[in-house]
Design brief:
Helices cover about 45% and strands about 20% of the residues. With about 900 residues, it is an alpha/beta fold.
Length: about 900
């Protein structure tokens, strides 16, 4: 981004002086500078804008012997080009003309009317309709942090505080489009929360308790924050105040739709850290073309329902009653399918009421959108009646709280035309019969045809000119046209304006008076319609809180209907939710994988049972491709779906409420950050072990693959032992592994049980049965998988030979010698090359021994290898 002072400033024209004075106040934003009918960008901004928008870059004179780059677009195309700049991660300052150019003899006053950033956007063209557009602020204080989230397009304002891990979990769950933090704490922010967010640093004084309190109290017009239940969240309040300050500096002052600040209560929701959100692919996947859980279960009708469903997914419930309330509503829709269909029909015309009502607050709602609000309020009445009459407490509660806002709805019905234009300046917005003056002006403006016809008849009769006609053009307005054959009959008082080949054009005093009357009426109509429309929108804004509550209740209803639809389509069942530590899933399926299978293929269901007394840890062995990873993920997804109030893909499921779900699935290098596969694995495993709770559900998939066999086995064993022996928290654990040696743990640890994903070997070929059965597996079938992948036969056959020799050598206990003439060894069983009395080899040995391999970046590793090579004297 261009920094202050980098743009060229030679001798400047008055316009460019004005431009630079405004640009200096917003050095890190692209400045869209209104000049006449265009928005122009200059210098570095023009270069950036031309690249992002694909518009022409030119040069223009800028005073004596100086040129400046220029790129612009018509002002009416702002809604097309602005979103492209914001999506490209740019901050955009919109600079408008603040006075009518006709009313000034000097340069027109200009000023920034809006600063649009990725986190502060209201335009429909910038926003994703089915996603929230959160702006976040993080306040770091020693080992704690406060966080706040605001979606200015809906008015949702949330805050929380806690450990860095908790704040990181929230950031990954809410996925803000922009994150604010203290400039001086940039390094600490990146260390704690990574560098994947779009961030913006604010001055440190913004993040002070007094400043935050004053800003929040001023906005909410209260004397304390106790009414919002956030007064004890010291750091959360500071973060919230920083967001309000940011709205000030981005020129967003019409924010009365932000009516409250809610607390995200940590003890109400299941802990899902960023690894779990990523590994379970709740909202998206790192793999191309993969489907997320939200895509499978989201059958919502409205955008606001879709946004709420994603929030439910990020914050599963822990309270049994709240979960049961949702489940009972979903089940009720099965019992009353006609009622469900009716509700869906009523919901369809509601649209995005949540964002529409926010547009009322910021004064950006169009006449057509006001009619949409009316339609939504119309739909609320039958929904309210239906829910109140139903036999379900959750739905009754929704019905009782819904408010059809009848008075404002009827006023919109009466005052706004049934099919108004998208913009107020297009006219015909206010209905007939609302304002007598407006009706009179319309008669003057639009009954002109009759008046002109009567004038033509009168003049034909008076002058005897049969072909006389009255027309209009932009040059001299209304005129009378007479063909040359009759021009001798033209009265003397007519004034000739134009001579044509076959005719002459005249104006009269009566025509000029009529024209002034008509044109004056059109201007007055626009002023009057704008005034009446503004008054209506002002009245509508008084219903903000009520309509926001309606939107939230309808979104909740939409989510429950969606759960019911998904359950019916995919044959899900209602889970039994209990406040205990038993997890018992019969015939469980993976909700995403089963939807992606071929029509003639059926997903193989599996049973999983865990508790804290008899079967706390299940060690699952079995070959690659047998379905271990799918089994782990489906268990977590079934628990998660149950705790958001959804039916689940299983024959039956008893879910003892879980408070934390941890996953360590798959392996991926983070080379750019200098972390190996093993380092990533250990970071994630450490996070799990440091945050265990008695009600945790833990999934480990192939832990320890990133290091040598014995290292891996040792670490895996010790982690399972730690979880099993932890007296404070007997966390329920599924541990999928290649290390068959871990099957030995069942003999020593009573709550540790062996299972394997079964396979069948027929004619030296493997058939994957994908069924979980009791007992350990002692064969990996890795070579069979290599054959299936199309590995050359010679390689597969040679691998078989080596495997037989390795297994034989292992049984004899002699793996210290080469097993064949090319010196192959099983990983973990390595010859010592340092038993020779060779000083060079000793030097190499010492160099390797003193190297911390786990914390070595790839570049450092190559440099170290080069150093070792030098010891040998090889060039």
């Amino acid at each position: 981004m261009a920094k202050k002072g980098t743009t060229k400033k030679a001798v400047q024209t008055p316009l460019m002086k004005q431009y630079y004075s405004i640009k200096d106040k917003h050095p890190d934003a692209i400045l869209l500078f209104r000049v006449g009918d265009f928005y122009e960008t200059f210098s570095d901004d023009a270069i950036k804008a031309s690249e992002i928008l694909g518009i022409t870059l030119t040069r223009r004179a800028n005073g004596a012997a100086s040129y400046v780059e220029l790129a612009g677009f018509p002002h009416h195309a702002l809604d097309t080009y602005l979103p492209k700049l914001v999506r490209a991660g740019q901050r955009v300052a919109v600079c408008d003309q603040l006075e009518d150019p006709k009313m000034t003899k000097t340069i027109v006053k200009r000023g920034v009317t809006e600063l649009v950033t990725p986190g502060v956007a209201i335009s429909d063209n910038v926003l994703e309709h089915r996603e929230n557009n959160f702006l976040a602020a993080v306040h770091i204080h020693k080992n704690l942090a406060g966080v706040s989230f605001l979606d200015i397009s809906t008015g949702e304002f949330l805050t929380a505080e806690g450990s860095f891990e908790y704040i990181d979990k929230l950031l990954n769950g809410f996925k803000p489009k922009e994150v604010l933090f203290e400039k001086s704490k940039r390094t600490q922010f990146v260390e704690c929360f990574g560098d994947k967010f779009y961030t913006y640093g604010l001055e440190d004084w913004v993040f002070t308790e007094d400043s935050a309190h004053d800003r929040l109290l001023k906005h909410f017009e209260t004397k304390s924050l106790k009414g919002y239940g956030v007064h004890n969240l010291k750091y959360g309040v500071v973060a919230s105040g920083a967001i309000m300050h940011y709205l000030d500096i981005t020129q967003h002052h019409k924010i009365q739709h932000i009516t409250g600040l809610s607390r995200i209560e940590e003890d109400k929701y299941v802990w899902l850290d960023k690894f779990t959100i990523r590994n379970l692919e709740l909202f998206g996947s790192v793999n191309d073309g993969a489907t997320s859980l939200s895509a499978v279960i989201d059958q919502t009708i409205s955008p606001m329902g879709s946004r709420m469903l994603k929030r439910w997914l990020a914050l599963p419930l822990k309270e049994v009653k709240l979960i049961e309330d949702r489940l009972s509503a979903v089940e009720y829709f099965f019992k009353a399918p006609e009622f469900k269909s009716q509700l869906e029909e009523y919901l369809r015309p509601v649209g995005d009421l949540e964002r529409l009502v926010s547009k009322v607050a910021v004064g950006r709602i169009s006449p057509r959108e006001v009619v949409q609000v009316k339609q939504a309020l119309n739909a609320i009445e039958p929904i309210k009646k239906g829910c109140e009459m139903g036999d379900n407490d959750t739905l009754k509660s929704i019905g009782e709280q819904l408010n059809p806002c009848i008075s404002i709805r009827e006023r919109i019905e009466k005052e706004i035309a049934s099919d108004p234009p998208a913009q107020i300046n297009k006219g015909n917005v206010i209905a007939e019969g609302v304002n007598q003056e407006l009706d009179d002006l319309r008669k003057i403006a639009f009954s002109g045809k009759d008046y002109l016809n009567s004038m033509v008849e009168r003049e034909v009769e008076r002058t005897g000119i049969p072909s006389l006609k009255i027309s209009f053009n932009n040059v001299f307005g209304y005129y009378i046209e007479v063909r040359n054959t009759h021009k001798d009959k033209v009265p003397q008082e007519w004034i000739r304006k134009q001579t044509l080949v076959n005719a002459e054009r005249y104006i009269t005093e009566e025509l000029k008076e009529y024209e002034a009357k008509i044109l004056g009426a059109e201007e007055k109509i626009l002023v009057l319609e704008t005034q009446l429309y503004t008054e209506l929108v002002l009245s509508l804004s008084e219903y903000l809180v009520a309509i926001q509550l309606d939107a939230s209740l309808l979104a909740k209803l939409d989510c429950l209907l969606s759960f019911s639809t998904t359950a019916a389509q995919n044959k899900y069942v209602r889970p039994v939710i209990k406040d205990d530590d038993v997890l018992d899933i019969k015939g469980g399926r993976h909700p995403v994988i089963e939807k992606q299978m071929a029509i003639d293929e059926e997903y193989i269901p599996n049973d999983v049972a865990l508790d804290t007394d008899k079967q706390q840890v299940i060690i699952i062995t079995g070959p690659n491709m047998a379905g271990k990873s799918a089994l782990l993920r489906q268990t977590a997804l079934i628990v998660l779906m149950a705790q958001i109030g959804s039916f689940v893909p299983a024959e039956s499921a008893q879910i003892g409420v879980v408070d934390k779900i941890f996953t360590r699935v798959g392996a991926s290098d983070n080379i750019s950050a200098g972390e190996s596969t093993f380092m990533v694995e250990m970071n994630e495993a450490a996070s799990i072990l440091n945050n265990l709770s008695p009600r945790s559900l833990i999934l480990f998939d192939e832990l320890g693959r990133g290091t040598s066999t014995y290292d891996g086995i040792s670490i895996a064993w010790s982690i399972v032992e730690y979880i099993h022996e932890n007296k404070r928290a007997r966390a329920k654990t599924l541990f999928a592994t290649h290390y068959h040696e871990l099957n030995e743990m069942e003999k020593s640890f009573e709550r540790c049980k062996n299972y394997n994903v079964s396979v069948k070997e027929v004619n030296n070929k493997v058939i994957f049965l994908r069924k979980l059965v009791r007992g350990g597996s002692n064969h990996s079938f890795g070579i069979h998988v290599a054959r299936m992948a199309g590995m050359p036969k010679t390689v597969v056959n040679r691998a078989n030979d080596i495997l037989l020799e390795l297994e034989g050598a292992n049984r004899k206990g002699s793996l210290a010698k080469p097993v064949n003439d090319i010196g192959q060894h099983r990983e973990g069983y390595q010859m010592s090359i340092f038993q020779l009395d060779d000083p060079v080899l000793k030097q190499i040995r010492d160099e390797i021994a003193n190297t911390d391999i786990n914390n070595l970046t790839p570049v450092e590793a190559l440099n170290k290898l080069n150093e070792i090579k030098k010891f040998t004297g090889i060039k």
